[in-house]
Amino acid sequence: MKRTGAAALALIASATAAAAQQGALHCGGTEPFWGVTITAQAMWYSDPDTKRRELVLVKPLRAAGRPEDFIRVYQTRRVDGRGNVILVVTRNRQTCSDGMSDRRYPYNAVYVGDGVLEGCCRWTP
Questions:
Q1: Is residue 1 over pLDDT 60?
Q2: In sequence order, which residues have a C-beta less than 8 Å from that of residue 76 and are 6 or more positions away?
Q3: Which pTM value belongs to this model?
Q4: 46 contacts: CB under 8 Å, gap ≥ 6
Q5: Given this model, what pLDDT does residue 18 score?
Q6: Which pLDDT belongs to residue 22?
């Protein structure tokens, strides 16, 4: 019976992750303000000075032996060829705070491009 319950929970978790991936992943931070958006068709970075910097859309790397939704590592580059980018998205059981609002996010984010930026992420439909 325990196996059946565990299998059912795994199936539900997998279905939930798959459903979430139907939308867009929005990551961002404050002070400085920045954002990365990932959809099924595109990936881009933005900040107050850069309205939209296109990134090469890649499939994320995942941690072996961990749930699919535990960690995602996007190793990519700018479409204009001016540098490599890494975005690390990790599940946060306590919730992530942007430091400026009451909104809570289920993921932490670290963006490494021209510098290192830290923030939060969430899926949107």
A1: no
A2: 43, 55, 56, 57, 58, 84, 85, 86, 87
A3: 0.80
A4: 34, 35, 36, 37, 52, 53
A5: 47
A6: 63
For 5, 6, 34, 47, 101, the CA distances from 61, given in Å and listed in that order, are 28, 25, 23, 25, 30
For every residue of the chain, DSSP letters joined together read -HHHHHHHHHHHHHHHHHHHTTSEEEEEETTTTEEEEE-SS-EEEE-SS-S-EEE---PPEE-TTS-TTTEEEEEEEBTTSS-EEEEEEEEEEEEEE-SSSS-EEEEEEEEESSSEEEEEEEEE-
Tokens 């059981």 belong to 93
